[in-house]
Amino acid sequence: MKDLKSSCLLAMLIGVSSCSYISGxxxxxxxxxxxxFEEKLSPDLKLxxxxxxxxxxxxxxxxxxxxxxxxxxxIPAPRQIFSSGESNEVQLRRxxxxxxxxxxxxxxxxxxxxxxxxxxSSMSIIEADPDAGTMLVKYSDALNFKVTIEHGIKEASTEVxxxxxxxxxxxSVKQDPEFIQQELEKIVQFxxxxxxxFSGTSLAAQNLNDRKKAKIFNVNDQTIIELNLGFDRAxxxxxxxxxxxxxxxxxxxxxxxxxxxxxxxxxxxxxxFSFLNFNNEENNDSLLxxxxxxxxxxxxxxxxxxxxxxxxxEGAKEEAEAxxxxxxxxxx
Length: 332
Fold this sequence. Notes:
This protein is an alpha+beta fold. Among the domains are: 90-209, Outer membrane protein assembly factor BamC (TATA-Binding Protein); 213-270 and 286-330, TATA-Binding Protein, CATH 3.30.310. Helices cover 25% and strands 23% of the residues. It has helices at 2-23, 107-120, 177-194, 231-244, 317-330, and strands at 90-95, 98-103, 124-129, 134-138, 143-151, 158-166, 214-219, 222-227, 249-253, 258-261, 295-302, 305-312. The strands form 2 sheets. The protein has a 6-stranded antiparallel sheet with strand order 1-2-6-5-4-3, with helices on both faces. Strands 7-8-12-11-10-9 form a 6-stranded antiparallel sheet. Helix 2 (107-120) packs across helix 3 and helix 4 (231-244) packs across helix 5. The longest helix is centred in the N-terminal third of the chain and has 22 residues, at 2-23.
């Protein structure tokens, strides 16, 4: 028993001495946390010529006599982040002879739904290119459909177009608006029953999500919405946005692409008695309007693209930005 105690004591002494030998001040790996106390400034460089000078930048000067303290700066607020509403809306839209299905979901989700529609029908898919967003569908022995899926104007939206092609020659034939409308209505019904419950997405069609029809940029401190659309569709989209926002136009000049409108950032549900819920729910998004125009909405088209600019007639730049944000939110 005495030998066992002696052995344990000897092992403990060896362990303690080993730790000291490895990590102690004189060990193989001494601690370095206090090494900075031993640092010394190196001598100044001796330059070969007095004409050569070294500039020293002190990025953190002490605030003392002779060095004025930094004044409090007015930091501008960040630009407003343009928002976009969310829903599962599905519509058949028409502008002249142009018709398309509008779906409020990403193209990468619309692609498999559209593909499932044709696979479930009696028609067969001849070829499909998810990167380009196109499908060639055999409708009959003499007629093919070309289906085009694009990103819409609104964030997370899709536009589905349908055109007729000759089966043998593979060229576009004269479009039949009534026939195309009937076929698009069937797609609308399929989307209406599938979009809200469909949770899948196509990885192969992910690139379609980046090809948005609306972009926002700033030129000379002026915010601009750029639509990858011609004037007719852009004018229709802005008109629909103003109507959806209950923004009444005081005057319209379509030839010059001008809307004159009045707009108040405060909505009617911010009134004195709004907390009592006296407001009609249908008017919660309506805007306070004035009798005279306060803003000019200008549409300028060039190279199949249209820019939307909002100018304040009274110099209220922040309110002009708010109006442009509201238009962007309602564009579809």
